[in-house]
Amino acid sequence: MKIIEKRSRGYYLTSSLIIVIGIILDQLTKWLAVRFLEPIDTCPLLEGVLHLTYAENRGAAFGMLANNRWIFLIVSSVAILAMIGYLFSGLNEGKLAGISLAMLISGGIGNMIDRVLLGYVIDFIDFCAFPNLWKWVFNIADSCVCVGTFMLSVWLIIDTVKAYKKEKAEKEAKEQEE
Question: What string of pLDDT tens digits covers the 178 residues of the chain?
Fold first, then answer.
């Protein structure tokens, strides 16, 4: 059974700052996209690879399940509340997990603000890895979710390896005692 640990004020402050800064950066860059990109549609930074392009995403990641706003609001509200509860409960196991969850929360809230206020999410970073094959248009909130998910995956792998090594060492110690 896992024991709830009291976290330091720094842990809670850092997690809260990551969430707040992520939301502010997301909303600020979306405001800038509406202000400066919507009138011109697109601005190439690296022709054919990276553009700033105004887009309204009414679906989930990469436009999937378009026009299902209420489903996204309900699912993301439940997920965000669960992550906030877990992050601040003291149950998570370290800085990497905390930073990962804070990034996921900030991205979820950033996109939820758009869905509630606008009915769609503003995207503007237009990246094309391979012409005519993969093209992504996303925003800062999406980036926070992707980076947070990657970091959480790394944390899970590290935690699994640590648990395996600990279990193996305990088993070997027990065998040596016998």
Answer: 455 566 777 888 999 999 999 999 999 999 999 999 888 888 888 887 888 999 998 876 555 566 667 787 888 899 999 999 988 887 766 788 889 999 999 999 999 999 999 989 999 999 887 766 777 889 999 999 999 999 999 988 988 998 899 888 888 888 888 7
CB count within 10 Å of CB 58 equals 16
State the pTM of this model. 0.83
Write down how long the chain is: 178
**Which of 26, 114, 126, 142 is labelled catalytic?**
142
| Contact of 98 with 92, CB cutoff 8 Å | yes
- Concerning whether 123 is annotated as a catalytic residue, the answer is yes
Which pair of structure tokens corresponds to residue 101? 């969850």
For tokens 């996921």, the residue is 104
Catalytic choice (26, 114, 123, 126): 123
Q: Hey, what are 68's tokens?
A: 């299902």
Nearest residue to 146 via CA among 115, 107, 111 = 107
Residue 26 falls in the annotated catalytic set: no
Residue type, 125: I
